[in-house]
Amino acid sequence: MAPLLSVRGLKVHFPISRGIWSRDVRYVKAVDGVDFDIAPGESMALVGESGCGKSTLGAAVLGMQIPTAGVISFAGEDVRHGERQTRIRLSRDIQTVFQDPVAALNPKMSIGDSIAEPLAIHGVGDAKERAERVAELLSLVGLHPQHAERRPNAFSGGQRQRIVIARALALQPKLLILDEPVSALDVSIRSQILNLLLDLQRRFGLSYLFISHDLSVVRHFADRVAVMYLGKLVETGPTETVFARPVHPYTEALLSAVPLPDPVAQRARRRIVLTGDLPSPANPPAGCSFVTRCPLAEEICRRVPPPLVAAGKQERAACHVRASRLNEEGSFA
Ligand code: SF4
Ligand code: MG
């Protein structure tokens, strides 16, 4: 199946000034050569520690961040260089839900007006049709249509995130970028919002790019996972396989901190604690970006950046030691 979203060689580098008299321009390589696809109806999670470039990547897909290099195409069309008509259509087809539902809603507008805003901007329907669509969207996200006249402050955090989701769905998008959509919510209501998103995905065949640092959430949510470290993808694969048999030492360390449902397995598991700090993305190590924290590092790791290569049927990993051994021997047990 042709991908809905395809990202190739994506780089987003920010220049940083070292003082007005300095000619030495340095770059923060927030996203540094990323490739991935998302199929129609598929959800892919982008995981990694804060500051690894996940949100910048999401912003580039949304067209809110101009890439330094690379190509992002959506349904076969270039996101950046499209004609005006293409850009307008993409602004309908790709929508976003951010972490903070309080900041996302204008406190002075009724929630009905907020939800109707994208419809009005895109000239969809007349006022009466838009009001009907708002009522439909509110019931879709589990809120009472009679509440459309209320302001955001009449609602809880979880309800506000439902309102934000209703607004994101107003234009019937194909892809939603969910940037930490439940991180700001009480733990008790996170699963309600995640289940709502899963239900909407099934009903409308939506694709999701789910940005999260929380692997226990990702496990139940995403079809595929891409692990990001210092602007690069270090491992990708089906969620189940990556969780069961992580290849990259970084993925392994991240997963070792996620509680297992089975208490026996949990007791038997070794927690891998990473030592060393996350290097600055303005000054990443030569060779493998993970080398300063990797328990398996060898001499080659300091010199040569490992490419993201096949490490199983559908998995890919960027590690000299693990990926090559896996490909030679079929396992690294
Ligand atoms: Fe560790 Fe080397 Fe693999 Fe990088 S390439 S993750 S430093 S073993
Ligand atoms: Mg972020």
UniProtKB/TrEMBL annotation:
GO terms for molecular function: ATP binding; ATP hydrolysis activity. Pfam families: ABC_tran (PF00005), oligo_HPY (PF08352). It is a peripheral membrane protein. CDD domains: ABC_NikE_OppD_transporters. Residues 7-255 form the ABC transporter domain. One of its GO terms (cellular component) is plasma membrane. The keyword Transport applies. One of its GO terms (biological process) is peptide transport. It is found in: Cell inner membrane. Keywords: ATP-binding, Nucleotide-binding, Transport. SMART domains: AAA. InterPro entries: AAA+_ATPase, ABC_transp_ATP-bind, ABC_transporter-like_ATP-bd, ABC_transporter-like_CS, Oligopep_ABC_C, P-loop_NTPase. Belongs to the ABC transporter superfamily. NCBIfam families: oligo_HPY (TIGR01727). This is ATP-binding cassette domain-containing protein. It comes from Aliirhizobium smilacinae.
